[in-house]
Amino acid sequence: MIGDFNAFRAQLVLPAQCELFDYWLSCSIDGAIPVRQVFTPVAIPQLLPHVSLIDVERAGRFRIRLAGTQLRDVFDREITGLPVSDLERMSSAGYWQRACSSVVETGLPMQGAIKSPRITKDHLVQFWLRLPFAARDGSIRQVLGFDACIPAADLQIDLSQCDQGEPDALAV
Known about the structure:
Strand order of the largest sheet: 2-1-5-4-3
Number of domains: 1
Structural class: alpha+beta
CATH topology: Beta-Lactamase
Number of strands: 5
CATH architecture: 2-Layer Sandwich
CATH class: Alpha Beta
Order of helices and strands: HHEEHHHEEEH
Oligomer: single chain
Strand content: 15-25%
C-alpha cells in the first residue's frame, strides 16, 4: 500500500518530477503500488525523453528496458538494454544499483540530485526520481525512472551540495 507522500512530493525540485510523480500516484488502484499496465506513456509525452523503465532481474540485478533520448545525452551512449551495473562504470560505483534495490525492497519512491555521471559534464546536476511498479502479485518487478540534467550555473548552487554518497529514500 502506498501512503501519504506529501512530504516526499514537497522535496521534488523540478516541475517535471512533480508531474511524473503525480501521474504515477494517479495510476494507483485502491492505494496499492501502481502496476505498469495502468501507466500510459502517451499521458506524459513531454516527459518521455527523461523517462526510463528498469526491469528487476534475478539475484537483485536490474536492466534498462527503455531509456529516453535525454539519457543517451547524459551517458554519451545508448543505455537501452544495458544492465544497471554497466552504468556504474560510467558513474558513482554502486549508486544506481543501491537506488534501484532500495525501491524494490521498500516499495517506496526515491529521489535525489547528484553531479553528472560523466566527467566531461561535471558542470551539470542530475535530478533523478525512481518509482516502483508492482506486478499483479504485489512484488516490485519494474522501476520507473526520471532523470534530468541542469547546468549548475542555472540553479545558482554549489555542486558540493549534490550528494554522491548513498541514495536515500525520502518518502514519508
